[in-house]
Structures are given as C-alpha cells and as structure tokens.
Amino acid sequence: MHAVYPLLLGALLFAIGLYGVLARRNAITILMAIELLLNAVTVNLIAFGSLIRDQYNVGQVFTLFVITIAAAETGLGLAIVLMIYRQRGTASVDEQRVLAEPLRGPTDDAGGASAEPANAGSAPNAAGAVR
Amino acid sequence: MNHSYLSPTGVEIAFVLIGLITVGSALLVVTVQNLMHAALWLVVSLGSIAGEYLLLGAELVAWVQILIYVGAVVVLILFGLVLTKAPIGPTTELDVKHKLPAALVAAGATGVLVTVLVDAYHNVWIDSHAAIAQGTAAANGAALFKYWVLPFETLSVLLLAALVGAIVISRRGRAEGASEWSTALESGPVLEPIAPSAALVASTTANQGAEADD
Questions:
Q1: Helix (H, G, I), strand (E, B) or coil at B192
Q2: Which of A7, A20, A53 is the closest to B121 by Cβ?
Q3: Which of B30, B73, B84 is the closest to A24 by Cβ?
Q4: CB-CB: which of A13, A53, A69 is closest to B26?
Q5: CB count, 10 Å around CB of B187?
Q6: If both were cysteines, with which of A130, B22, B81, B178 could B86 make a disulfide (CB 3.0 to 4.6 Å apart)?
Q7: Cα–Cα distance between B26 and A98 in angstroms, integer?
Q8: What is the model's pLDDT at position B96?
Q9: How far is A109 from chain B (nearest CA, A)?
Q10: Is B125 helix (H, G, I), strand (E, B) or coil?
Q11: Per-residue burial over A30-52, b = 16 or more CB atoms within 10 Å of its CB, e = otherwise
C-alpha cells in the first residue's frame, strides 16, 4: 500500500490527541488523549517498520516497548489522579493551582464544610473496594 | 512509481475504511460530553488501530495491542472514572474558553504534518505482504532476544518500578487519609480495614498533632 495512508492516519491521530490534551479538563480524559498520542506514534513505527524491514525489526520491537511504557504510565497516572481526587475532591486539572499538598485535607476546607465530610468518608471505601 | 492512487488495492481500501473508523472514534473520544462514552469510544479507536496493524503485516503487535490496550488500559481508565465519581451523563466539561485555541493548534499540527508527509512520501510504497514474515511471534521474539535483550530487561525493571510506585502512592494516601478521617469522624470501625497498621496511623496522627501544636 502507499506509505501515505498509515502516515496520514498517524498524523490525524496525533492532532486529535493534541486537541484532547489541550481542551479537556478532567485528568482521566487527558490520560485518554495521551493514549491517542502514543498510538499515533506506534502507527508510524509500524508503518516505517513495514517499509524498512530491517534485520533488527526496529519498528515492531519499539512498538512493543511503547505499549509497555504506556501501560506503566497509565497505571502511575491513574494512581496520582486518584490520590489528588482523594485529597482535594476533584480530578479537574484546572483547579489544581498549587503543587503543595493540602495540610489538613478536604475536611477542613472552609467553603464546603458541610459537603466535604460525606465525600471524604466514601472515598477511602471506594479505594478499599478496588484493592 | 507505477502504483497509482486511482486504482487502490484491496488492502488500501480496507486500510482507509478502518482508518475512517479510527479517526472518527478518536474524534468522539475527545469531543463527546459523556465521559463513560468517551472511554468506550477509546475501545473502538484502539481496537481498529489493531486492525490497521494487521493490515500492515504486524500480527503479534496487533494482538498485543488488543490484549494490553483494550484489555488492560481501558479497564484501568474505566476504574479511574468510576473511582473519581465521574458524572454519569453529559457534562459541561468541554465548555472552556481555550477550546478554540486548542482546535487551532490541532488544525495547525494537522496542516503541517499532512503537508510534509504527503510531500515526502507520496511515491513510497509499502510491501505489506513482505512485512508479514516480520510480524509473526517467532520473528519478533528472535529480534527481541537477539538484539534487544538489554532494553527488554530494563523495561521489566521499569514495569516493576511503576508497580511499586503506584502501590506506594496509594498506600501513603490511605495512611494519611485514614488518620485524618478517623479523627474527623471520631469513630474507627468503618475505617479499620483500610488502615494499614495501628502504629503507622498513630505515628501520623502524632505528627499531625505536633504540627497542630506548632
């Protein structure tokens, strides 16, 4: 087949993933867009691997590596997002304005004093259920 | 080149059709208002990319893509959506001010990439039939363990580190959180199974007491 087709597919996927990373606000949807970006890269790797067909099989071996790293990245990213959600009660990246951990946790938040304890009480139970 | 764009082969037709599915579902992933639906469209997108790998002759990678992406990563993402209490049903998440600049950046990237790629590769031909021999599990395994042993082993260490890191992040959050919430609720029994050990909780509580005294 013409090399243009898989390369164009990779370019379009990359642009879509770029838009997703820039326009989404929920951290998990940003992780999904990052998966699209990584898949754009792997489509390119497979296309050039089929084009070059060298003895080291670089394209496909690197694709396997990228898939492995993507799995590790997703696991760690989700752990971090869950941690942020447990501490601050939101997974939206627009509301993460400070890097420091909140010292007293979401329960002492002045604004949502009535709503936060119910939220805080159920979050660790959900975390315990997945374990 | 003697290959014309006007007389596409069957492989090309199938590739373009599956590519349309891929791009369409990827667009839905980043634009749909329902977060659960976005994660499920991601399954369609990643699965059809596995079909593209098959058409390019990369058989093993296609199955690995289905196993790891569709089987593991999307399930992880769905777990994350559920655990962060993502709103079921449409959200107003996309009504942001920087939506238009983001679309402009994406359109610019598309324009540049498409122009450059078409200009550079418009008469390059991939022999996907010859690539089938390199896509089998035997060929990939031989290449991995002949030439890529060190990166392969390094990658296994990286996976172990990621696993340990994820566990450490979750455990630390649970210990601190349990002490905070147990002092907030003044009653232990609900949170008992979550606390890793009484000594750890006691030490974190003591630390927080010291901070409060300061």
A1: coil
A2: A7
A3: B30
A4: A13
A5: 8
A6: B81
A7: 32
A8: 74
A9: 12
A10: strand
A11: bbbbbbbbbbbbbbbbbbbbbbe
Residue A64 in tokens? 């396997």
Whether A102 shows a pLDDT value over 50: the answer reads: yes
Average of per-residue pLDDT values in chain B: 82
Classify B69 in phi/psi space as left (phi over 0), alpha (psi -120 to 50) or beta. Answer: alpha
Q: Which residues of B touch A127 (CB under 8 A)?
A: 83, 170, 173-174, 194
Taken in order A72, A74, A79, A83, the sign of the CA dihedral is positive
Count residue pairs from A and B with Cβ separation < 8 A: 299
**Touching check for A115 and chain B: CB below 8 Å?**
no
Amino acid making up residue B53: Y
A66 has a chain B CB within 8 A of its CB:
no
| CA distances from residue B7 to A103, A120, B3, B120 in whole angstroms, order as listed | 66, 62, 8, 21
Q: Quote the percentage of chain B above a pLDDT of 70.
A: 77
Q: Which carries the bigger pLDDT value, residue A1 or residue B176? A: A1
pLDDT at residue A100, rounded to an integer: 72
Q: Is A63 on the interface with B (CB under 8 A)?
A: yes
Give the C-alpha separation, B167 to A83, whole Å: 11
Q: Does A2 touch chain B (CB under 8 A)?
A: yes
Q: pLDDT category, B101, cuts 50, 70, 90? A: very high
Contact B56 A105 (CB under 8 A): no
Interface contact flag, B140 A60, Cβ < 8 Å: yes
Residue B30 to residue A23, Cβ atoms within 8 A: yes
**DSSP-assigned beta bridge partners for residue A92:** A26
Report the alpha-carbon distance of residue B38 to residue A24 in Å, rounded: 11
